[in-house]
């Protein structure tokens, strides 16, 4: 899964720690999601989108497979 989490954070002027605090996870979790090492749960993805005030599809996209 691809994500625009880092871009969304920058546009919202939030640090990894700020976002983590708002959704109840660790800063390391945010870092792992941004790096593509961890795919968030549906609930976590929805919480992130809610913080940014955008649809979840604007933050996370499925990668195309041939």
TrEMBL record:
<feature type="domain" description="HTH cro/C1-type">
    <location>
        <begin position="5"/>
        <end position="59"/>
    </location>
</feature>
<dbReference type="InterPro" id="IPR010982">
    <property type="entry name" value="Lambda_DNA-bd_dom_sf"/>
</dbReference>
<protein>
    <submittedName>
        <fullName>Helix-turn-helix transcriptional regulator</fullName>
    </submittedName>
</protein>
<keyword id="KW-0238">DNA-binding</keyword>
<dbReference type="Pfam" id="PF01381">
    <property type="entry name" value="HTH_3"/>
</dbReference>
<dbReference type="InterPro" id="IPR001387">
    <property type="entry name" value="Cro/C1-type_HTH"/>
</dbReference>
């Amino acid at each position: 899964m691809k994500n625009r989490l880092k871009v969304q954070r920058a546009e919202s002027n939030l640090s990894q720690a700020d976002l983590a605090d708002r959704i109840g996870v660790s800063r390391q979790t945010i870092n792992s999601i941004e790096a593509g090492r961890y795919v968030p749960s549906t609930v976590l993805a929805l919480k992130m989108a809610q913080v940014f005030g955008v649809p979840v599809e604007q933050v996370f996209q499925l990668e195309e497979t041939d």
